[in-house]
Specification:
Blueprint (H helix, E strand, L loop, with lengths): L1 E4 L5 H10 L5 E4 L2 E4 L9 H6 E5 L19 E2 L4 E2 L5 E5 L6 H13 L4 E3 L17 H13 L3 E5 L6 H5 L4 E4 L7 H8 L5 E4 L6 H13 L5 E5 L18 H8 L4 E3 L1 H5 L2 H14 L3 E5 L17 H18 L10
Parallel strand pairs: 7-8, 7-14, 8-9, 9-10, 10-11, 11-12, 12-13, 13-14
Antiparallel strand pairs: 1-3, 1-4, 2-3, 5-6
Helix pairs in contact: 3-4, 6-7, 10-11
Length: 336
């Protein structure tokens, strides 16, 4: 149940919180209070009189819903403002390979307008024999390169035991598609104050990803963004996954979290990455997260889907042009 409190009656919120807090989950956002597992019959007369609206038919992911949190979430990091009317470019190599290489890619990312440097130090791979990442030295290289070029760090955390260590180096945790329903990990990042990019699982529905985000929010961390990176469909012979561009406006309607598109993991092949990236911009995504590499044929991981520096810069210019056409504009005020 979500209760919208009338202006001037906000004191009732603390009374409701105190009354229900020992027995159930209670969440407060501005003049709205959500009580898990309760209905209007549980409210007394004073509380009912203070309610401008009572919403009982709402999603299970109550904290992520527009009913509880109508306005867009804006995530502020040292170098980025993510969400709302803002557009954020995130780019970098799939894996951190060396300090020299990640520095080179950071310079390219910066030149393309990125404010976030992505890179993996711990890599969940399909094969146990594939490159698994450099570990903590890779995080150190990533942090050093990002700081040198005035960028934020986005990197994946794979298990709850690594949350504290990765948190020392990153500005944004990435939860990969394979870990979207790793509930112990979601709870662990939910206890931090570090923003989280939660990637949609390969077979996850819209409700699945929103409920996964709720695990993070339930821990107290509501600085969440959702990444659409393609899903498994009946035909992935020609692309790695199927980019669900329609999920972007749906997620924006249902939740207040920024929605980021990852065309690299959706396409799986460089020749399609730019086109899928531009589709994400055109549909109204809050940003892109793209893999880049100066020598894709010899990349330690996922070289087949990486844009070269020239390809990335061209894509970034095209994305900027499309964004200028689709960016929401404020309506002019009408004066008498």
């Amino acid at each position: 149940m979500i209760i919208v409190i009338k202006p001037g009656k906000e004191a009732v919120i603390s009374e409701i919180t105190n009354r229900f807090g020992d027995h159930t989950e209670v969440f407060v956002h501005d003049n709205r209070i959500a009580i898990q597992g309760a209905d209007r019959d549980a409210l007394n007369k004073v509380e009912l009189d203070a309610a401008a609206q009572i919403i009982e038919n709402h999603p299970a992911s109550v904290q992520g819903s527009r009913a509880f949190h109508p306005e867009d979430t804006i995530i502020q990091t040292p170098h980025s403002t993510i969400g709302g009317d803002n557009f954020t470019m995130m780019a970098g190599p799939c894996s951190v390979e060396s300090l020299a290489h990640v520095r080179k890619m950071a310079e390219v990312a910066k030149a393309g307008g990125a404010t976030v440097l992505r890179g993996g130090a711990f890599k969940p791979r399909t094969s146990p024999y594939s490159f698994q990442g450099l570990g903590e030295p890779g995080l150190q290289f990533l942090r050093q390169a990002a700081d040198e070029f005035g960028l934020d760090v986005l990197t994946e955390v794979m298990d709850e035991d690594h949350v504290e260590m990765v948190g020392k180096y990153t500005d944004i945790f990435q939860i990969g598609a394979r870990n979207m329903q790793n509930f112990s990990l979601l709870k662990a990042v939910g206890k931090t104050k570090i923003p989280v990019m939660l990637k949609r699982g390969m077979s996850a529905t819209i409700d699945d990803i929103l409920n996964a985000a709720e695990y993070i929010a339930a821990g107290g961390n509501t600085q969440i963004m959702i990444a659409e990176r393609g899903i498994r469909t009946f035909d992935n012979k020609y692309t790695r996954n199927t980019l669900d561009v329609g999920a972007v406006p749906v997620l924006q309607k249902l939740s207040h979290y920024p929605v980021i598109v990852d065309p690299s993991h959706a396409a799986g092949h460089t020749e399609f990455v730019t086109k899928e990236a531009l589709a994400g911009v055109a549909i109204g995504a809050s940003g892109l997260v793209v893999e880049i590499h100066d020598d894709p044929a010899h990349a330690f991981s996922d070289g087949a889907q990486a844009l070269t520096p020239d390809q990335f810069l061209e894509m970034a210019n095209q994305a900027t042009a499309i964004r200028s056409l689709v960016k929401p504009t404020k309506k002019a005020e009408v004066t008498a």
